[in-house]
Design a protein that fits this description.
Elements lengths: L2 H40 L5 H23 L8 H25 L5 H8 L2 H12 L6 H18 L7 H31 L1 H23 L9 H29 L1 H8 L2 H13 L5 H18 L3
Family: Belongs to the EamA transporter family.
Protein name: Drug/metabolite transporter (DMT)-like permease
Keywords: Membrane, Transmembrane, Transmembrane helix
Length: 304
């Protein structure tokens, strides 16, 4: 066997790993850009419910086209699977997204992303309450670090208007809903498959959001300036559909731990984009808090 023959599998593995890193970076950037495009769309006076409805209505056909193209089907879902999937879809993609979009009306994209970054700490606390998972000293220390950092970030907001604090509360609720989704979804995912679960959960959330829109808005609310539709399409594709599939492909190539580490760049990417595009800024104290929050979340998300 020649040296060239031996090196071919190694080169293939290296290329696969590099492509996995690129996919993970693309996913992190896509998710990080969501708040930026939402804030840009809000400049045209579209409300949160209408924009979120457009996002899900435009994203859902793409998910189902991919689903049909894959032609993959798992074992039949039980009635319990269906009810759990409905509940998790409502928590993770409907309520979480709704509170997030409502919060972004008054909260900066940078602060929103940083609050959402606390979801691993919420997941740990929920697991301790409902699954009786013990909180170790390491985890307890990470929780203290994370919330100390968030206090530093929020400190300059203490003198802010009430509307800003309402938005902060809404983003915290979004984070809590997403943590509920992450806490209770693994068992269902293990039975029905990750992508199948995601596609069906998004279908549930889209149906809920369309129902919400129909009950609270008139259909004339969809008569919007073309930039709103353009931003909604970008949110649906660049910040929703593409990152979800890129994330799954990245995990298949480089593993979940490395993908998670790359994904932890999300808040910094959002802050950078917020400064560059939206002209947002953080004070020195908030930058310190950002570093502390990221350190705490990284510690709680990694065993080593």
């Amino acid at each position: 066997m020649t040296e060239t023959t031996l090196s071919a599998p190694v080169e293939h593995a290296d290329a696969r790993f590099r492509f996995g890193v690129v996919l993970a970076l693309f996913a992190a950037t896509g998710f990080a850009s969501k708040a930026i495009f939402v804030k840009l769309a809000y400049r045209y006076h579209v409300d949160a419910v209408t924009l979120l409805t457009l996002r899900l209505a435009l994203a859902l056909p793409m998910f189902w086209l991919v689903k049909l193209a894959r032609r993959e089907d798992g074992p039949p879902m039980t009635r319990a699977d269906r009810w759990q999937l409905i509940g998790l879809g409502l928590a993770g993609y409907y309520l979480s997204s709704l509170f997030d979009f409502l919060g972004l009306v008054t909260v900066s994209a940078s602060l929103e992303r940083l609050i959402l970054f606390l979801y691993p700490t919420f997941t740990v606390l929920l697991s301790a309450v409902f699954a009786h998972h013990p909180i170790t000293r390491r985890v307890a220390g990470a929780l203290v670090i994370s919330y100390t950092g968030m206090l530093l970030v929020l400190w300059p907001e203490l003198s802010a208007a009430q509307g800003t604090w309402l938005g902060i509360g809404q983003v915290f609720l979004s984070t809590l809903c997403y943590a509920v989704f992450l806490t209770f979804s693994p068992r269902v995912i293990a039975r029905v498959g990750a992508m199948r679960f995601t596609e069906n959960a998004l279908t549930v959330s889209a149906a809920a959001m369309l129902t919400h829109f129909a009950l609270t808005r008139s259909w004339s609310a969809l008569v919007l300036p073309w930039p709103v539709w353009a931003y909604a399409a970008v949110i649906a594709l660049v910040a929703t559909v593409f990152p979800i599939y890129a994330l799954a492909a990245a995990m298949a190539r480089i593993g979940a731990p490395r993908t998670a580490i790359i994904g932890s760049m999300g808040p910094i990417l959002t802050i950078f984009l917020g400064v560059l595009i939206l002209h947002e800024h953080l004070t020195s104290l908030q930058w310190l808090g950002t570093v502390v929050v990221m350190a705490g979340v990284w510690r709680i998300s990694h065993k080593k």
